[in-house]
Amino acid sequence: MFRKFYKTVQEPFTRDVFKVKYCQxxxxxxxxxxxxxxxxxxxxxxxxxVITEEDTEPLPGVSVIIKGTTQGVTTDLDGKFEIQVPExxxxxxxxxxxxxxxxxxxxxxxxxxVSMKYDMQDLGEVVVVGYGTVKxxxxxxxxxxxxxxxxxxxxxxxxxxxxQGKVPGLDLTKSSGQAGAGLNIRLRGNRSLxxxxxxxxxxxxxxxxxTLDVNPNDIASIEVLKDAASTAIxxxxxxxxxxxxxxxxxxxxxPKVSINSYYSTQSLDDYDYIMTGPEWVDFRRESRRTVxxxxxxxxxxxxxxxxxxxxxxxxxxxxxxxxxxxxGAQQNYQVSVAGADEKVNYYFSMEYFDEQSLFENDELKRYxxxxxxxxxxxxxxxxxxxxxxxxxxxxxxxxxxxWANKISPLGAAYDGAGEIITLPLGDGVTVNPxxxxxxxxxxxxxxxxxxFGNVSLEWKPVTSVNFTSRLGLDNSNSxxxxxxxxxxxDVGSDGRTVASATNNMASRVTWENFVTYSKASxxxxxxxxxxxxxxxxxxEEYFAEGLDLLSPTMLFHNLGASQEGIRINSxxxxxxxxxxxxxxxxxxxxxxxxxxxxRADGSSVLAAGNKWGFFxxxxxxxxxxxxxxxxxxxxxxxxxFRLSYGISGNSAVSAYQTLGGLSKSTYAWxxxxxxxxxxxxxxxxxxxxxxxxxxxxxxxxIDFGFFNNRVTGSVDIYxxxxxxxxxxxxxxATSGFTSAWDNVGKTRNRGIELLLSTINIxxxxxxxxxxxxxxxxxxxxxxxxVEGDRDLANGWFVGYPISSYFDYEKTGIWQLGEEDQxxxxxxxxxxxxxxxxxxxxxxxxxDRTILGSNVPKFNLGVNNRVSYKGxxxxxxxxxxxxxxxxxEANGSYKIDARENGPRVDYWTPENPTNAxxxxxxxxxxxxxxxxxxxxxxxGSFVKVRDITLGYNLPxxxxxxxxxxxxxxxxxxxxxxxxxxxxxxxxxxxxxxSFPMTRQLLFGVNIEL
Length: 1008
Known about the structure:
Number of strands: 50
Strand content: over 45%
Distance between the termini: 36 Å
Radius of gyration: 33 Å
Helix content: under 10%
Shape: globular
């Protein structure tokens, strides 16, 4: 392990930078830990009293600490304190749970009397919502904020990943361990059968997409909008929930420089799912014994290729998976400068990110820069711009594990000179899984350049009116080139190279104008928003491919040198959306709040007459804490009830789908001794009058706080009913078509969400411990289909989640002594036994049943934070329970033993297990009865997703360097996972390719 790590950091370019930089940091940590606090040479005593500002009552238990040290005292029962401080330059920090912390300079004073305000941060905190902000206390919808330390607590490739387990109602998993792998995101379940179910992601008000390349250090907050009251302002765009990203801007004061960096190694706990050489030999022998072709090792010559048999007898075999799996690495360097004066607010940042996965040639490099500037032209006019540019250079590796897991292990990977053996098994056909990493033999490279930004104008002609005009542009250009040389996994041994190139140009232009009118009095607070939005997208793509290049050195840069199989294609897709919206907020006596929204959307992708949809919502909330019977209650510090109902739409059908379409058909014309191909077109898609899918959402929520907000949280209960689903249904063949799209079908999601935060310990000594707890339960079910209660072609069933598994239920393996029963079902002992669901004594298709779904019964997140004297420790546990997965490890059992496969407990007369059927060379995975029942596995898991230990260097150590803060930290990610699948991390799903990795990370945060 150490040798691999040392080899990694010896690589050129940034690896050398890392070695020097992190060695310096390590020495700094050792030195700082050895520094002892210096006693004050001259000191004096300061005393005083701490009271509450509101009612002037003495406040006992207040922590009084000398700033920059760990020396402090607490106030007594009368709120009094006495502390010894340095003679000069001392500042006292007063803090207490439920109150705003204060810093007071001692100067020449010997007595200090301090008044502390109740901490109304939770109620007064400003939360970003659609087209504006609102105080948290005034929220009527279900909104969860992620900010501060949660955004940068764990380094991630995609900033959205920080929300896993921290937002109730959000089911977020990583798709794989591949470099730059995406995320699977669902907010309150799936609603649509064929349209999209991803939530809308916006950055500073402009649509971005779920592949978020924004550096987490540049993000100020993430707001997740879940119910109709909060998402209706986005109409059709917000049908599946909304995630708002707000980036950082400068603040008044001297320029602030931040430097953040980390380096990590990525590894795999183990990968022992596949049979070794001796195990596969026994397996292959057993498969031939079943059909009478093998009885002893003397028969090996009949069932093995000569070279493989010789290799086995000489103990030569390879663990192909471990040959291709290596050690990955991840590194990140980010610097930002921020500041502001009376006229200009600025923020600049740059980032370099590099991720190398477990496999060679699977790497992502990302370079990004961001600039945000606000210019206050006058007291009434402000101009702003926010620009991001990202360059991604990604090499993708064709999944080598699928091939490595199934080829015979009876071969050597390298020859005596250490060179890769191209055809290692002696059959002249099977290629080495390592061939793809021979330099110049395989390349899949994509370069993407993305410009994302907006300019806006804010004009405030009078105090009560604010007008905003915003123009956003998202423009990306990408080129993906693929070259597969001779004897690569996909080309095989036929020798014909393959090269292709895809060029894509995509853009989205957004223009929005909205005005807000606000009016407040003693008992009434009134706000009206009127707005208009429009956007247009254009996606242009060109593709070319050819076979058998004249020279492999051309890669994909000279497709004209292809000698055969030339294919070309291009397409243009344009869409647009126009919207008008209004929102009314009204608050009476600071405790009764009403919110109403109406949005009209017109979508170009829908049929004429159905393009416009109207989506209203209404919500009310009651700040019960402001009532007379609770306002003086010292136990209940916050209590609010929320109720909302609204309708949202979904127009996520393909562009031009409602217009009908033609497909190309090839015809052959006989011209004597040769045939000439000709092309024609036939109607393949019937025009359809498609309209909006609509979701009606009802939400009831309670926000609470107890004991000066030492315990805070919220509970939400919701129901979402979606109707007019976009489904493809059968039509009479006399129409000239076999199917057509229509608005039919219904789904429903019901659930409960809990968010709980507690401050467990907060001692004057500096020891603090807090816990955040989230719980999500969502029941997803189809309520209505086109005809009947099931659609077997798509696997949809009324009363069950959209992604459900319908199959026979395996109960075991037919055993010796059960020959007669097995024979009644045309089976033999050693084969799979399934349950007779209807009890008629015969297994028929009617005995299939719903086995499970990939939708979890619940998600759980628990995050503990502990800090003491400069040290901080966080431990985050994430659980996903009650979901089923289709396991490749389980389902790729090669019953005929023609290929290698997973190490499993299979049946033999000497080993009458109930796990897997007997190997049988006379059948195959496609012919073996009920073989599909082996695929299913419990996908539940509990993992310690990350453990982070950090240390802030003492101020005395760094103040002479003009550095305000240095924090070093180490993080262990995904090191502890518990599931029924052993060392496999089921967050990946069921696939063995690109498994989830463990990550050991070291980083530093510096503020100047």
